[in-house]
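Forum > Structural Biology > Help requests

Title: Can anyone predict the 3D structure of GNAT family N-acetyltransferase?

Hi all, first post here. I have the sequence for GNAT family N-acetyltransferase but no way to get a structure on my laptop. I'd be grateful if someone could post the structure tokens.
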Amino acid sequence: MKLERLTGEEALARSAELIEIYRIAFSGPPWYEDGYGTADFVKRLTTDVRRPGFTAVLATHDGSPAGFGTAWPTQAPFPEGRAYDRVRLELGGQVEKRLVGALEVDELAVSPHARGQGLAGRILDLLCEDATDCWLLTAPQAQDAIRLYERLGWQRLTRPATNVVVFIRSQDGVRQHQQL
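Reply #1:
Sure, ran it for you. Structure tokens for GNAT family N-acetyltransferase below:
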């Protein structure tokens, strides 16, 4: 596997590869994304690449796209819309203290043919390597993703019965996890 860090402009130039991975990775359970979901991703991507500090990682295998991740620092005040309102509802006052300023991993997608090889962890490591703190969210139905983040040492911030699952990772926590 080859992993490349991409700027916003580079991600736009390679958007066909990102879209292909997104479509394949999120077409099955628990997401069941259809053409509309992929179209929404395309709109988000063209906006997200312009966020301050945007970065992406693209993984390819034998020249074919296999996975990607996108991230940027969460700006103050904590955003509204999308899933941000659910995060604020679940975390309350912790949002500003724990998430603002941290690197927000927005998308992480691995094609089914590339799963089970540690690729998601490698993408996350490269995305987060320069950040002190990183955070991400997923749906409670995404049990495979939840197990992955827990296995990688991410700390869950939300309670078990919730409508959004938020994880955070600090560099101190990563070092502790790697020493185990």
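The chain has eight helices and seven strands. Strands lie at 2-6, 55-61, 64-73, 103-110, 133-138, 155-156, 165-170.
Shout if anything looks off.
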